[in-house]
Specification:
The protein is mainly α. Helices cover 78% and strands 0% of the residues.
Length: 288
């Protein structure tokens, strides 16, 4: 294989795998036939055309009509996973009443037992009560309501509204359990709740004296979960839908600094691990 062909094959990876399986050899033959004698690198025009064409097909596949079924399944996953994320967030705060925690637990139970409309109704009430409590706490703050606090409150309120809207608009939310696996969701949910409790205990601890933020623990777990989810088309769409919720859980990320570096590093590591794992599994399947 020549260097030019190798470089063209790398550029063709911009196209989805299913598209490459059908058209890669044909596209490669056309590109190689149009190359000059002795050419070792793709022309800039070819590079731009391939990148633009691959990105366009990926966008069309991601948001086109043929992708709607996967988006619906992603919303079903959000309907059963979203309440657990918000419940863990409440526990992490440690300043929420038992009544609102019970509302969260009830929302999770109703969603997991496929009671769509009762789950949606309780989720909207839960969102209203929690949002009102957070706004009241911020108004009573001695420092007043700063711009950062308003942004954080907007993100938190929007997260509860997003989950309530998902439960309202998605039929058969329990299908989200079967898509991910009941055991897997229970395991990750238990880990998330454990991280939330540990983070709550670490708040105000001596870790801050060394510049270590307790929130780094849930941030790291979030990056790992996103990396694992990225291995499937429905999982990637679920990450996209839940990304506003995840960002709202960490309002410090709005500030440029170490938090931004941590998010970039952990998120990139998670997705790279998932990408290499998917590639390894695909290679094994082809070899087998």
């Amino acid at each position: 294989m020549s260097n030019l062909e190798r470089r063209y094959r790398r550029l063709l990876r911009w196209y989805p795998r299913a598209h490459r399986e059908r058209h890669e050899e044909e596209m490669l033959n056309v590109l190689m036939a149009a190359a000059r004698a002795g050419q070792s690198r793709p022309e800039l025009r070819d590079v731009l055309d391939l990148v633009k064409g691959g990105a366009a097909i990926r966008v069309r596949w991601a948001f086109g009509l043929e992708s709607m079924a996967r988006w619906r399944d992603a919303m079903r996953v959000v309907a059963v996973v979203g309440p657990m994320v918000l419940l863990a967030y409440q526990i992490q705060l440690g300043a929420v009443s038992g009544e609102m925690l019970l509302m969260g637990i009830l929302t999770v139970f109703l969603a997991w037992t496929n009671r769509r409309w009762p789950a949606a109704a309780v989720a909207w009430i839960w969102a209203l009560l929690f949002s009102a409590a957070m706004v009241a706490m911020s108004m009573l703050s001695a420092t007043g309501v700063s711009l950062d606090m308003r942004v954080a409150l907007g993100g938190i309120v929007g997260s509860f509204v997003l989950v309530a809207a998902a439960l309202t608009g998605v039929a058969q939310p329990r299908r989200g359990l079967s898509l991910v696996g009941r055991g897997r969701i229970l395991a990750w949910s238990g880990a998330a709740l454990a991280v939330a409790v540990v983070t709550l205990q670490l708040k105000g601890a001596a870790l801050r004296e060394f510049g270590v933020l307790p929130e780094l623990l849930p941030l790291g777990m979030s990056a790992v979960v996103c990396g694992v989810a990225a291995q499937s088309p429905v999982g990637r769409r679920t990450v996209v839908v839940l990304s506003p919720v995840m960002l709202a859980m960490f309002p410090q990320l709005m500030v440029v600094g170490l938090w931004g570096i941590a998010l970039l590093g952990l998120g990139s590591a998670g997705f790279l691990v998932a990408a290499f794992r998917s590639r390894s599994l695909a290679q094994r399947a082809n070899d087998g």
